[in-house]
Amino acid sequence: MIQTSFKILTIFILSLTTYYANAQGCSDAGFCTINSIKPNSSDTIIKSTNQVKVGVSLGSADNSISIFGNYIEYNRQVTNSFGIDAKITSLSQSGNGISNFGISDIYLTGNYKVNEKLKLILGTKIPLTAGNKKKNNIALPMDYQSSLGTFDLIFGAGYEIKKLQIVLAFQQPLSQNKNEFLAENYPINSKISDFQSTNQFKRSSDVLLRVSYPMKLGEKFRITPSLLPIFHLSNDKYTDDLEIENEIKGSQGLTLNGNAYLDYEINSKSDLQLNVGIPFVVRDARPDGLTRSFIVNLEYKVKF
Fold it and tell me: Domains along the chain?
């Protein structure tokens, strides 16, 4: 029954990819992509002591902005129960006459397997920029920043019911960035003047729930449909030109995403993974610049 339901979900997600390509969507602070929270991590890393992954992603963001991201990641299984992950990311954004590229964040996480069904996750996100890049000495909005610029704590737990994988995770900013963007600093005829101001931006925390179900398609292929609700716990805030702190109404709330992962085993030591993500539900306001109407990620993995 469960397998039938997820086969239907897979077809649904893939068939909607084209329809939602011009919608608004996938938004998170990056923690849904770390190894311990992605689907299938528990049954792939255990097969080898070390893994190295290299990935690239393409997507469409708000305000006619295109994004190109890449990352390199290292996973090590220290014992049968304990593993560590390290990941470094970068991001390029272009649109509205502005192009920007920069390194983003380092993710460091550990996962502890309590038993065959339960694992615990603890980690951090370390920003490599302050989230305040400028053009012509004027601050750019968050949509053109390569990192949120926040130092975050990440913790969570994963549980498996037969093949059904469930992960619940929480991300809490421990610091805020140094963004200074005020829309009124741009000419009224500039597209950037319509962006949400984020001067002295204060970003709220997120809670994530991921439900996934991997299915084999022959000896070499596996497909994993996944639902990914992310709840932003309160409205974000910014400080206006009068030094008054304001809530950004509508920035609190739910983002519901669908993902489909297609894995191909090249040989016993290497794999390819294609991941397509699209949105079903989005928050009214997304000042952090993380919104994607769709995203496609290709990853190559080597095990040793």
Answer: 2-292 (2.40.128)
Structure tokens at 74: 């290292």
* Tokens 């979900």 -> residue: 9
pTM of the entire structure? 0.89
Round to whole Å and give the CA distance between 89 and 129.
Answer: 12
pLDDT in tens, 245-286: 999 999 999 999 999 999 999 999 999 999 999 889 889 999
Amino acid of residue 167: V
CB-based contacts of 272, cutoff 8 Å, min separation 6: 263, 264, 266, 298, 299, 300, 301
- Which H helix or E strand runs over 177? none
Q: Which amino acid is at 182?
A: L
Identity at 247, one-letter amino acid code: E
Instruction: Please check whether residue 4 is in contact with residue 215, taking contact to mean a CB–CB distance below 8 angstroms.
Output: no
The lowest-confidence range among 117-126, 156-165, 281-290 is 281-290
Contact indicator for 267, 255 with CB cutoff of 8 Å:
no
Length of the chain: 304
